[in-house]
Write a structure and sequence with these properties.
The chain has 326 residues and is an alpha/beta fold. 40% of the residues lie in helices and 17% in strands. The protein binds trimethylamine oxide (TMO).
Length: 326
């Protein structure tokens, strides 16, 4: 087995084999098969995919980026169509994550330092201009919907949710559960980027806006306030057994996890060790998003810059216990 692996590497990657030969040959080498990394549809996830891919490449691995639907991606990790998943948001993804784990094939690869929240909110200037007196308490929404009406909202306030593929009907059920459906209507953004377009447009036009947003994100730095809804509890949502007396519950503050296909630690022991060690903070993830959403870089360029600016953060994760940093 180790003979075959060695032959494989020496045959297919002669340049790397040479550099191995000039130092000690490590006891366990990573497979030369590409590590399959998911690309979803929000900025920090895509930049982080390239950041982690760049880390793996710096260790001599090859990577491939695979565009995936978020909810289907956990099954893809389970069956090996993806090697890793690097941003598992508790509030909206824990069910799919634990379902895949229970079926077998997806393993827990640790937790980021950042705490997460995915929730409706307003840019701070909505509060400063007092466009909805009483915010951030949700009860304020009973009396300010007119200030949030748009041409497509039929006279009600527009509650701008992210793309429907992210959370299904959680928000329509929230609005009904809170008894706000005669005042507010949920509209789904076509893309994540449409949320930031709306933020900029509303500020320019000086009108109120309420959008779905999350932390960590670039808006942590620019000023955004999440609305305080009735507290989340396990089972309050419709999909988890709740009914309209409970679906008004807000989102939980939660963890941000990583996962991997169960073969990853065996096929790529060094990359797996680095992946299980890596842990990003709220400002680190916010800065990955900001390079794209504020500075307008491409995701790939943003990752190159982030890696160059943060070597002291990520390099230590790539050093294996064999002292072989490759
Ligand atoms: C999964 N997201 C961070 C977009 O809510």
């Amino acid at each position: 087995m180790s003979f075959n692996l060695k032959k494989n590497i020496f045959g297919v990657l002669p340049a790397i084999a040479l550099s191995f030969a000039s130092i000690a040959v490590p006891a366990v080498a990573d497979s030369n098969k590409p590590i399959l990394i998911p690309i979803k549809n929000w900025s920090s996830q895509i930049v982080m995919a390239h950041v982690i891919g760049g880390m793996f490449e710096s260790m001599g691995n090859t990577v491939e980026y695979v565009p995936v639907d978020n909810q289907a991606s956990f099954e893809a990790v389970r069956n090996g169509d993806l090697t890793i998943t690097h941003e598992v948001w508790q509030s909206t993804m824990q069910n799919a994550y634990y379902n895949a784990m229970e079926k077998g094939g997806l393993i827990d690869a640790g937790t980021h330092d950042a705490e997460t929240l995915e929730e409706m909110g307003v840019p701070n200037w909505v509060i400063e201009r007092n466009l909805c007196p009483g915010l951030p308490k949700w009860e304020a929404l009973k009396d300010c919907s007119e200030a949030f009406a748009t041409p497509d909202s039929g006279g009600k306030g527009r509650w701008l949710e992210g793309p429907q593929s992210w959370h299904g009907d959680v928000m329509p059920n929230r609005v009904k559960g809170l008894g706000l459906d005669d005042k507010w209507v949920v509209k789904f953004a076509g893309t994540g980027d449409a949320l930031w377009t709306e933020l900029a447009a509303a500020e320019k036009e000086g009108r109120g806006t309420i959008i779905f947003n999350w932390t960590p994100n670039f808006t942590d730095a620019s000023g955004f306030t999440f609305i305080e809804f009735p507290e989340y509890f396990d089972g309050c949502r419709l999909a988890d057994g709740g009914d309209l007396s409970t679906t008004g519950c807000g989102s939980p503050r939660g963890w941000l996890k990583k996962g991997a296909n169960y073969k990853f630690p065996k096929s790529h022991p060094k990359a797996y060790a680095a992946f299980s060690k890596l842990s990003f903070t709220t400002p680190q993830i916010g800065s990955m998003a900001a390079l794209v959403d504020v500075d307008k870089m491409t995701h790939a360029d943003a990752a190159v810059k982030w890696l160059a600016d943060n070597e002291a953060v990520w390099k230590p994760w790539t050093v294996s216990i064999l002292g072989d940093a490759n």
